[in-house]
Amino acid sequence: MVLNMGRFEYEYLDVPEALPEGFDPEEYVVATYYVSLPAGLDAHVVAQAVAVEQSTGTWTPVPKETPEIKRKHAARVIGVYEAPAYQWFLPKDVEERQYIIQVAFPILNLCGSQFPVLLATVAGNILAGGKVKLLDLAFPRKYLEGFKGAKFGIEGVRSILGVKDRPLINNMIKPCVYSPPDIGAELAYEVAAGGVDIIKDDELLADMELNKVEERVVKFMEAIDKANEEKGEKTLYTVNITDRPSRVLELADRVIELGGNALMVDAVPVGFETLRDLAEDPSINVPILAHLPDFTGAVYMSPEYGLSSHLIIGKFPRIAGADIVVYPAPYGKAMFLRENYIKIAKQLRYPLYHLKKVFPMPSGGIIPIHVPQLVFDLGPDIVIGAGGGIHAHPQGPRAGATAFRQAIDATMKGISLEEAAKEYKELDVALKTWKTTKIV
Amino acid sequence: MVLNMGRFEYEYLDVPEALPEGFDPEEYVVATYYVSLPAGLDAHVVAQAVAVEQSTGTWTPVPKETPEIKRKHAARVIGVYEAPAYQWFLPKDVEERQYIIQVAFPILNLCGSQFPVLLATVAGNILAGGKVKLLDLAFPRKYLEGFKGAKFGIEGVRSILGVKDRPLINNMIKPCVYSPPDIGAELAYEVAAGGVDIIKDDELLADMELNKVEERVVKFMEAIDKANEEKGEKTLYTVNITDRPSRVLELADRVIELGGNALMVDAVPVGFETLRDLAEDPSINVPILAHLPDFTGAVYMSPEYGLSSHLIIGKFPRIAGADIVVYPAPYGKAMFLRENYIKIAKQLRYPLYHLKKVFPMPSGGIIPIHVPQLVFDLGPDIVIGAGGGIHAHPQGPRAGATAFRQAIDATMKGISLEEAAKEYKELDVALKTWKTTKIV
Question: Which residues in chain B are contacts of A438 at CB distance < 8 A?
Answer without folding.
Answer: 1-4
